[in-house]
Design brief:
The chain has one domain. 0% of the residues lie in helices and 69% in strands. The protein contains no helices and seven strands. Strand 6 and strand 7 form a beta hairpin.
Length: 103
């Protein structure tokens, strides 16, 4: 199995691997910014290390690639026999980032 780490971004935990891109709920950061996040758990060379609550002297470095909006979700409310109907649309704010290194 590949090496991976579990990091926490905005009260949610994500399992990440080096070199992959991920899309998560929006967090405040400029495009091109490199950030460090604490590692909660880490698997390297088949050995699992779990932090209490974080793994000491370990962080995951990411680069923000894009701030944008996700796919549009359309909903439709309809009530029979009363001629009532209403449409709603929603697009979630998202952040796309790439994991540069875990050390």
């Amino acid at each position: 199995m590949q090496d991976y780490a579990v990091i926490q971004i905005a009260h949610r935990q994500h399992m990440v691997q080096i070199g992959r891109t991920y899309t998560v709920d929006k967090f405040v950061a400029e495009v091109g910014t490199k950030m460090d996040f604490p590692v909660l758990a880490m698997a390297k060379d088949g050995k699992l290390t779990i932090g209490t609550p974080v793994v000491e002297k370990t962080s995951a470095k990411i680069e923000v690639l894009e701030q944008g909006r996700g796919e549009k979700i359309n909903t439709f409310v309809y009530k029979a026999k009363s001629r009532y109907h209403k449409r709603h649309g929603f697009r979630k704010q998202i952040t796309t980032f790439k994991v540069i290194e875990i050390n």
